[in-house]
Amino acid sequence: MEVHKHPHHVTHSKKWGEYLLEFIMLFLAVFLGFIAENIRESTVEHQKEREYIHSMINDLKADTLKLNEVIAGYQWATQMQDTLITTFSALQKGNNEALVKYLGGIMGYPDFIYSDATIQQLKNAGGFRIFRNRNDIDSIMAYDAKVKRTLINEAYLARNYEQLQNLFKETFNILKINRIMGASYFKDLNTKDFKLLLTQDEHKLLTFFNQIVYYSISCKSRTLEMKETKMEATKLIKYLEKEYDMH
Questions:
Q1: What is the pLDDT at residue 50?
Q2: Whole-number pLDDT of residue 138
Q3: Would the pLDDT of 127 be above 50?
Q4: Which end of the chain, N or C, is less packed with Cβ atoms under 10 Å?
Q5: Does the pLDDT value for residue 242 go beyond 80?
Q6: Is the pTM above the cut of 0.85?
């Protein structure tokens, strides 16, 4: 009786075509797996990119709201400063009301707190690498640079404000001003004996006046800068919403 060898018998010798077919099948399996993994990674990264953009847009909208408040605060302060400057001669003559009414214009300034959580995450976590459009990265970084310049200039304004406050302490009776602001001495504002000025020295008063003018110019410059920053934020929101279809 003749015995036939089964193709899968250990002693069976494969033809070269079978080896080729197995190689092709193995290659296709690896290649398709590679393609599938790339597609999966691309999909995940694309979703992550949209999440970053959504978060970035929310930060920008928060910035515009804050900038609206800051701009309004500066505009109010500069109006007070302008009136204080025009009535300063009356103050020198003992008209305390000129100072008290418009004192708020030189007693602090509004701060802009930058919403940079998303940008910091993109920088620190290497999130920018998943962005497919280089222009998106450039636009976001340009806005970040604009805000950073604005914050640097705020530090310059802070120095001007400190100088103004030092002169204010040397020129006015802070105790009496505090009591006036408590609404207990308004009726005595312009009486002969109720003097807010610590000095009548013309040089000191003019130095203080000059510092108010200088500070007011700085505040007006800051107002324009904040308006420009708001325009940049609004423009970037529109660009990103259109680019990523997030209307």
A1: 87
A2: 93
A3: yes
A4: N
A5: yes
A6: no
CA–CA separation, 103 vs 113, rounded Å?
25
Could you please report the per-residue DSSP string of 40-96?
Answer: HHHHHHHHHHHHHHHHHHHHHHHHHHHHHHHHHHHHHHHHHHHHHHHTHHHHHTT-H
Collect all residues with Cβ–Cβ distance below 8 Å to 215 and sequence separation of at least 6: 81, 106, 160, 161, 164
Q: Could you write out the DSSP letters of every residue in 6-31?
A: PTTSTTPPPPHHHHHHHHHHHHHHHH
